[in-house]
Write a structure and sequence with these properties.
By secondary structure, the protein is mainly alpha-helical. It has two domains: 3-188 and 304-334, HUPs (Rossmann fold), CATH 3.40.50.620; 212-300, Tyrosyl-Transfer RNA Synthetase (Orthogonal Bundle), CATH 1.10.240.10. It contains 14 helices and three strands. A three-stranded parallel β-sheet has the order 1-2-3. Helix 3 (57-70) packs across helix 13 and helix 7 crosses helix 8. The structure holds adenosine-5'-triphosphate and magnesium ion. Adenosine-5'-triphosphate (ATP) binds at residues 8-9, 15, 17-18, 21-22, 148, 193-195, 204-208. Adenosine-5'-triphosphate binds next to helix 1.
Length: 337
């Protein structure tokens, strides 16, 4: 049986961008495949601590799992939810793979270069986390790892480490995940969704942006979120058209309207074509976002901590079994057993 693996860092409350661009597509993919594939959803809490955490990490972890459930994740026997730190094999395999990875290839990781740039000192975790990612993937023989484009290089690293390890020991110990091009095909997207910053629509919406009105958080009061949409930056062209380059603010609103209501973008674009009143569009999008948040927050409130802990107990038992078996194979190969 093939395996899909995915996780989202839970360092803070998520934005509407994280929800529409990462969480919701993942939940749809999981629901589509969980009858005949393993779907591993893990909370990468060891990855969280390479940078600062907003609020309480434990609370963030539990909330992130609730997000998946509130977004409609269907649970069946093939869906496994676990915390990375509760499966020690991740750290253990990471060390073994550290002895396979080279300084040269690790130094070429763009994410490391970007994240360490301009910092006086940078923790070793920021340098090494792609190896931990490789362990996250290889322990479960994952084939598909739906990820943002910024992480593709790490998939290639994982493929290289797995292949090098297998060659060194002349055995197929690790399953090499599929190439990034095939990952993209599997995800069924031609281009990634990028929700824009409401005040500076040339940029993407990010949870770390300071300006409150630039982003919608999933825990925003629906009426407050509506106000943020009403005050979104547009342009002075006076026509409603989807053109991310020429009219990013308006295009972003059309995109949000489509995704929040699960309507194809072209239908929304056609509906508004020829209209000139930006205020009307904003009112409509504000209502859609506010309804979506009301609904989402209601669902979230219905999910108890107990329910999450029960899922984790089952998921972590499974994850430890699978991961420990794979770790043992790797340890044997190196003569550690
Ligand atoms: P930060 O500002 O801390 O980088 P972020 O909002 O960019 O936060 P990440 O933790 O970097 O969020 O990314 C989490 C997931 O959300 C990734 O899969 C990323 O591709 C996706 N994502 C982030 N921002 C957006 C956005 N504006 N639109 C769509 N998807 C997004
Ligand atoms: Mg980011």
């Amino acid at each position: 049986m093939k395996t899909i693996l995915t996780g989202i860092r839970s360092n803070s409350v998520l934005t509407l961008g994280n929800y529409l661009g990462a969480l919701l597509p993942m939940v749809r993919l999981a629901n589509e495949h969980s009858d005949d594939m393993n779907v591993n959803i893990f909370v990468p809490d060891l990855h969280s601590i390479i940078s600062d955490v907003d609020g309480d990490l434990q609370e963030n972890i539990i909330r992130t799992i609730k997000y998946y459930l509130a977004a409609g994740l269907k649970i069946n026997k093939n869906v496994h939810i676990y915390r990375q730190s509760r499966v020690p094999a991740h750290s253990q395999l990471c060390w073994i793979l550290n002895c396979v990875a080279t300084m040269g290839e690790m130094s070429r990781m763009t994410q490391y270069k970007e994240k360490s740039e301009g910092r006086e000192s940078c923790n070793v975790g920021i340098f090494d986390y792609p190896v931990l990612m490789a362990a996250d993937i290889l322990l479960y023989s994952a084939d598909y790892i739906p990820l943002g484009e910024d992480q593709f290089q790490h998939i290639e690293l994982t493929r290289n480490l797995a292949t090098r390890f297998n060659n060194k020991f002349g055995a197929e110990i690790f399953t090499v995940p599929v190439k990034t091009a095939e990952q993209v095909k599997f995800m069924g997207v031609d281009e990634g969704i990028r929700i824009r910053d409401l005040l500076n629509p040339e940029k993407k919406m990010s949870k770390s942006t300071a300006a409150e009105n630039s982003k919608i958080m999933l825990n925003d009061e629906p009426s407050k979120a509506a106000k943020k949409i009403m005050s979104a930056t547009t342009d002075s062209l006076g026509k409603i058209k989807y053109d991310m380059w020429g009219q990013p603010g308006i295009s972003n609103l059309l995109q949000i309207e489509a995704l929040v209501n699960d309507i194809p973008l072209h239908e929304v674009v056609t509906k508004w074509a020829g209209e000139t009143r930006y205020g009307e569009l904003k009112k409509q999008v504000a209502a859609s976002v506010s309804n979506m948040l009301t609904d989402f927050q209601e669902k979230l409130a219905e999910i108890s901590d107990e329910e999450v802990y029960e899922l984790l107990e089952i998921g972590e038992k499974y994850a430890n079994e699978v991961a420990n078996a794979k770790l043992a194979e790797a340890e044997k190969a190196f003569g550690l057993r």
